[in-house]
Amino acid sequence: MSSFAPLPLVGVTLDQEPGGSGQYSAFPWYALRANYMGAVVKAGGLPVALSHAPCLAEQVVARLDALIVTGGAFDIDPKLYGTPRAETTTTLKPARTAAEMALLEAALKRNIPVLGICGGMQLMAAALEGTLIQDISTEQPDALPHEQPNPRDQAGHIVHIEQNTLLGQIVGRGTMAVNSSHHQAVRTPGRARVSARAEDGIIEAIEYPSARFCVGVQWHPEFLIDPGDSALFAAFIQAAQDETVSGDGVW
Fold first, then answer.
1. What is the CA radius of gyration of the chain?
2. 204, 207, 222, 243: which one is catalytic?
3. Over the chain (251 residues), what is each successive 10-residue block's mean pLDDT?
4. Which is the catalytic residue, given 118, 146, 157, 207?
5. Closest Cα to residue 125, out of 228, 224, 195?
6. Of the four, 111, 119, 140, 182, which is 20 to 30 A from 204 by CA?
7. Among 52, 146, 157, 220, which one carries the catalytic annotation?
8. What GO MF annotations does this protein's record show (predicted)?
């Protein structure tokens, strides 16, 4: 029998592509940048990729110690937050969104740690009765370039972290330098609360105080650009480890 302490099992959601000529496969396939998994491993977690099967969401989450809802180059369907679809909301991925919403709802119900990244934060807001800006440049033309022109492994702008928030406690300071790759954003957080904003007022992080650990960030902390990114993953994995030690998770 192994003497190693069990690592918390962290479910990580996947993107899906339809496949076709000249692509990785002619048939539908899943995809994920490696640094999502690498950030979990570096923080002390055991990542596992999750398929798109909404009917199995509760069974999947029952075996997890934590959940990461990842981002992607697509939009959240406005019907999920009760808003007519504008022309600026373009690519939807209904199957992926349905699967991630089912996993997110099951994770919130079971109260395991959840981290929403970019589109994952936006889905979290919709699940918590919030709303989204469908296109920042249309609704706030004087906003910062939230689809930054420089490489995504570099910072694009600064975010200001709200005092007396879980994110503020984790990061330990009032600002972070973050990357930025989104044209939509959270308009209202619903039952969540705002924990960070960009200098132009765009919401950059939310958290759900009623949950043990439920944080969404609009940037991509898996690139580990700012020390606060590593601190966020460390706190998330520690919360997942606490789930494992409690006996409620999977050994």
1. 17
2. 222
3. 80 96 95 98 98 98 98 96 94 97 98 98 98 97 96 98 97 98 98 98 98 98 98 98 58 36
4. 118
5. 195
6. 111
7. 220
8. hydrolase activity
